[in-house]
Amino acid sequence: MKNSTVRAVNRLTTRWAAQAPAGARGTVLAAAGVWPLLALLADGSGGAARAELEEALGIPAEAAAAAARELLAALAGVRGLRTSTGLWAKTGLPLEEDWAAKLPAGARGTLTGDPDADARALNAWASDRTGGLIERMPVCLDKDSLLVLASAPTLRLRWIQPFDEAYGEPFAGPWADRPVRMLLRSTSLLDRVRVAHGPSGAVTLLEVDGAAGVDVHLVLGEAEAPVGDTLTTAIAAVTKALPATGASLLPDGSPGPGLAVGTVAAYSPEPRLDIETVAFEVRSEHDLLDHARLFGLETATDRDHDHFPGISSHPLAIASARQSALARFHAGGFEAAAVTALGAVAGSAPTRPRYRARRAEVRFDRPFGFLTVHRTSRLVLAAGWVAEPDTP
């Protein structure tokens, strides 16, 4: 996939993550599922709506549809990642063929005008495309709905090195004295954990390798740091826009949140990184129109004007834009899905130690963030925050 497109999608992810509230149990958002839809809209837009969509996308509107197609095709080639795009137009709504021809193959469907029947069909599509992870299409349908444009990226990863699962209670912090599903493992690769510095201090990043070219990065900021600062610092670090130092080069002590590094008496000269985190599941519902300016949809919601002359000769305005997202991190792997819909109307040792060896220990035992990242391109597929761990 093109570097310019990756940068544009990561830009939108960063801006959204900076604004997204953590929520009571956390949040998960997938700008990589929103960006192609905005790009397809931009291609058929006009006037002020076109300018706003260009600013949100970070590329010219005339290049947007081709970039969206190229991105979706590239994502479809990632093992473990399934991408789907759908368009449903009301019977009788004229679509501009030049615009419709730029949609991914097999994306076309029909709205009957019966909101209940259409909802059942769209819900079935969402459930089928996400393997049941998300069962409902996040769109508001009524008799005036003319068009629905949706995307459904779904990721299923297996860890290269699975975790061991145990039950325990954190010693301090907001999860103290509560039983949680703990995940434990060790590796000789110290630099799987790194530390970056952002506007609110140090951020510790742990890279958990997936078996199919996509990795999950767990990120822990300073205890009082805003969620947005921690996530945006982490995004900058994983995309190489911000330097991050591996544990092999960090000083002894506590160089990052949740991280301890030192040289100790050991039975083996090999370095070792001990990891302790928690299993989690996060679900989110996002109304993109709550951040209409961020997504370039502010003007496009004005029903008194036609904003998409390149899509249809019938005047169109955005009536709803929502995303349902899920992320699940467990001992064996990771699952994530996001359905986004835009509606238009009129993720055995010697007895005594013989060596001195480098040791690091990282613990995620209080709220933390996560990113799913395509290893080759550094495209951030999803970002989120874990406010509550899984319990036994």
Question: In a nutshell, what does this entry contain?
Answer:
22% of the residues lie in helices and 35% in strands. The protein is α+β, with helices and mostly antiparallel strands.
Describe this structure in words.
The chain is an alpha+beta fold. The chain folds into 2 domains: 3-157 and 281-344, Antithrombin, Chain I, domain 2, CATH 3.30.497.10; 158-279 and 349-386, Alpha-1-antitrypsin, domain 1. The protein has 7 helices and 21 strands. Strands 2, 3, 4, 5, 6, 16, 17 and 18 form an 8-stranded mixed beta sheet that branches. Strands 1-21-20-11-10-9-12 form a 7-stranded antiparallel beta sheet.
Structural class: alpha+beta
H/E order of the elements?
HEHHHEEHEHEEEEEEEHEEEEEEEEEE
| Contiguous runs where pLDDT drops below 50 for at least 5 residues | none
**Rg from C-alpha positions?**
23 Å
CATH classification class of the largest domain: Alpha Beta
Distance between the termini: 41 Å
CATH architecture classification name of the largest domain: 2-Layer Sandwich
**Number of β-strand runs:** 21
Q: Which key features would you list for this structure?
A:
eight-stranded mixed beta sheet, 22% helix, 2 domains, seven-stranded antiparallel beta sheet, Antithrombin, Chain I, domain 2, alpha+beta, Alpha-1-antitrypsin, domain 1, 7 helices, 392 residues
